[in-house]
Write the structure tokens for this entry.
Amino acid sequence: MGLEQYKGDMGMCCRCSCCKFIPMQQVQGHQYSTVCPSISRFDFHAYSGGGRLNIGTAMLDGSLKYTDKLLHIVYNCQMCGACGVSCNYAMDMEVQEPLNEIRIKCVEDGKTNPALEKVIKGLRKQGSMVPAAGKRGAWASGLKLKNVARDKADVLFHVGCLTSYDKDMHKLAIATAKILKKAGVDFGIAGDNETCCGGRAYQMGYEKDFLRQAKKNMAMIKKAGVKTVVTACADGYQAFKVLYDKFGLKKDLEVLHISEYIDRLIKSGKLKLRKKTGMAVTYHDPCRLGRMGEPWIHWKGKKIPGDRFVFDPPKEYRRGSNGVYEPPRDVLKSIPGLRLTEMTRIKEYAWCCGAGGGVGESNPGFAVWTARERIEEAASTGAEAMVTACPWCEKTFNEAIKESGSSLKVYDIVELVENAL
Amino acid sequence: MALNKDVYKAFEDVVGPEYISNDPAMMPAYHQVQFAAIILPGNTAEVQAIVKLCNKYKLAFRAVCTGWTGMFPPDIIYIDLRRMNRIVEINEKNMYAVIEPYVITAQLQAELFKRGLHMNLKGAGSNCTAMLRGHGHLDQTTSGDDRNHLAIEWVTPEGHIVHSGAAGSVDEWFCGDGPGPSLRSILTSAVPPGVTPGVFTKAAIKLYHWPGPTRFPIQGTSPNYSLSAIPANFMARYYSFPSVEKMWNAEIKLGENEICFELMGFNVSMVAANITTSNEEDERVFQEMNREVRGPGFFVIIAGNSAADFEYKKKVLEQIVGENDGQSLKSVEDPRIEGILLCQCIRVSASIRETFRAGGAFNSIPVMGQRDLTIRWAVGAGKAKEPLIEKGLIVPDGGAFFGWGVEQGHLGKTEIFCKFDPANPVAKEAVEKWQQEQSKRAFDERYFAMTMGPQDEIGPALANYHLWWKKVTEALDPNHTSPDAGALV
Ligand SMILES: Cc1cc2nc3c(=O)[nH]c(=O)nc-3n(C[C@H](O)[C@H](O)[C@H](O)COP(=O)(O)OP(=O)(O)OC[C@H]3O[C@@H](n4cnc5c(N)ncnc54)[C@H](O)[C@@H]3O)c2cc1C
Ligand code: SF4
Ligand code: SF4
């Protein structure tokens, strides 16, 4: 059905522009009141959630031909879901789903972005979203971790492409392993057999490549007999938890982000954070752990003919209410001495780091522009560091810091937990 | 009509290539209309240059702030003022703010709250520009922007920059009528269809005292926001009455006593829409509330400047409501609902949940005037909705109308709309017919004249204002750069 199934939703757009801002009652002033990086950077209405839906409608009725500008609009979007949250405060309609379908349609029509094509070629060849230099499991050498390909384990720690292959990110995998060990968790990794979750391919519009990766992963998980997957990457989390479920692949697999798992370990007394820190931090909600990490809701129904956009059975929308917001905050609050100050745009209306939707690859300048805005917002809280829970965010923020000369530091939540052990 | 290369280049030279487009991909995104070009100026000088080019090349133009409303003919130069988004000044001492077109109300209001000030909130919503003229929920105490607009910066249809009021003679914006030129009668009209030709590039708006907190204590995640506590000396209630007469009498008395921060003549269907987060919940809650109310009603917010002031206002409110056999809707007394309504009515202005959420469209008949008169007409317009409801063509709302007090009730707004599915042609046609018939009845029975109606019929009854307006626009816009500007509201 593709884009067609969202014809009615796209037709509901009333052009109110709420999708450009954080929810109205959360607006705390002129600054930090916008939520969509794309319209904020490129200004034309076409770059907003609403503008994109109108484009989707025109694509369906065949009145729109592909132009360079159209592709610029399509690929300069972080697929961050913020527009949908702000829209769905008041409206009953899908926003993010049609945006996904517009991309998928472009890819199916062969209207791809060269940088993303390159990434996907790499994925097809090497099972990775980043260039695969060396062995995927190299970061774990000497750590004596179980490998689920040969060892039985309760939990699979899915590391993710960036953390596996980017040497600067190895510290996150090592910290995660250390924390899980300390808590006595029976876990294993897939090591060199790990393959990309496919989530970022989906964001880029490559649905088939995503599905191939998802099936590979679920086959591996089935074979290994693990019941729980823990990811330390927000993209991985959303892929396993939400997208695999959307496509009926997740079954009864339990999927947890490392921040949820650590929170659980702390609350059940299995992990104690003892070391004091005097650090003042702020927390950045990664889009795919927060609003986009909200569980998938399976629904099939028909519009009830008549005056309203309502369905039989009633449709429940994913409005961003049930993302993972509190667990990472609770973890941070349990680090002795750490002071957490919130930014203006948080939780379901957090500003994206800039790397989502393939923008980090297709338009790195725009990704860094987006990250710089967040760096500035973080610094405005008086925090010395911003904590995130996704390696893609950390990477993009560090690039922005380098470019802007900001003195802000960026940590992943596992780094702070490791330090507090 | 495609612009020729040289003409396009002339516009491009004003704003730079990044801020102009005539790409076909842009057009459906904006309004499903093929414009000659979409252009995004960054300041008044650029607006002026664009307008001058439009005159030079005999091209029509239309400017927008957020672009939510308005009718846009093809082939025009569409001026999107999104980049002009600065709060130029908040003058606390003289209680005015000078803003550019793309400052939305939510932004300005949040800045004002921090300073103990607030402003008129357009009924359309805080997602709209704070700069254009509008009326809304808080009119009871803030009046509408036809009063609130002070000095204005206006690029005329020929491309002159005019500063009206105080800004015309000094670098101050405190007054709309002098010591510089007063153009109030022309410049107040920016709500369609009565759009003043030219482009407003800055406006000073009047500010008011805000007795509430610097920020509402919001809890929860979207769309389930509520307040962790009702702000001190604030109270929201909904009262229903056994008859329209009693409701109106209470409304007048409350105005005379000047105790309501807001008096919003919501019907329960709108209350239900505001406090619910989906269409299904809306329908259920409406039915529940409809059973609970005595008849027509209104929503009030009391805001005390002190505990004593709050107590006094509450007492007066109770007395007036009691004298008119009013009854408070129990569900609104629940602090959770009360908090939601406080936010909806002060910070959000609710209109999306009330209008577009249900079916995606609504057609409305809004009128400013004397509430007692317009309410009488609205009762009839509500009755005329009933057959449409019975046929399932519009969303059932009990045939309700709404409105609000302006300036403690000596003026008022009354409005009635039908919500429907625009993809259903039968519903669309039925609603348009209802709208025409009820507007005509308003005129024939001399309640009021809808200036969106046939000008040649209405004009003569209103001192031929339409001919005068034509003359004014002719003089202001000899090159016809403003597409049919409609009528003055
Ligand atoms: C659901 C809904 C409810 C509404 N309820 C109310 C209400 O209760 N009270 C009320 O007053 N209004 C109401 N309106 C109309 C409303 O006032 C306007 O839509 C809104 O305030 C205008 O703000 P905007 O940013 O959306 O303007 P836009 O949509 O950008 O512009 C509105 C019109 O003004 C013209 N215009 C815009 N900017 C300029 C400028 N700088 N110079 C010259 N002309 C310009 C545009 O061409 C357009 O015709 C409602 C509209 C909707 C859709
Ligand atoms: S997508 Fe939603 S929020 Fe954006 S303009 Fe359309 S209706 Fe409004
Ligand atoms: S997904 Fe994010 S970047 Fe894309 S339009 Fe929506 S808010 Fe903007």
The pocket of iron/sulfur cluster (ligand 2) is lined by residues A 13-19, 49-50, 53, 86-87, 91, 95 (CB under 6 Å). Chain A has 18 helices and eleven strands. The mean pLDDT of chain A is 97. Residues 124-267 of chain A form a domain with the Rossmann fold fold (CATH 3.40.50.1860).
